[in-house]
Amino acid sequence: MSKKEIIVSNVSEEHNNPIAELVQVACRFDSEIILESDNRRINAKSIMGIMAFNPSKGMTVNIEANGEDEQEALVAMEKFLVCE
Where is the HPr domain positioned along the sequence (predicted)? Predict the structure, then answer.
């Protein structure tokens, strides 16, 4: 299992449809990907979960990935959320 804490950038300005795009990034990987903030844990592959989670600028998020491609998944999720 790999974990990383990040601060979300302004994803709504950097992406046309940030919620759908974030789910698409997560779905490219076989690993389970969980996003956690303020005692809320959601599956990053769930569009309803991401909509409820609503990652926004300045939010501290823990990304947790577990599986064969967890390192790649962690990097891709971080790049999306910090708008690299």
Answer: 1-84
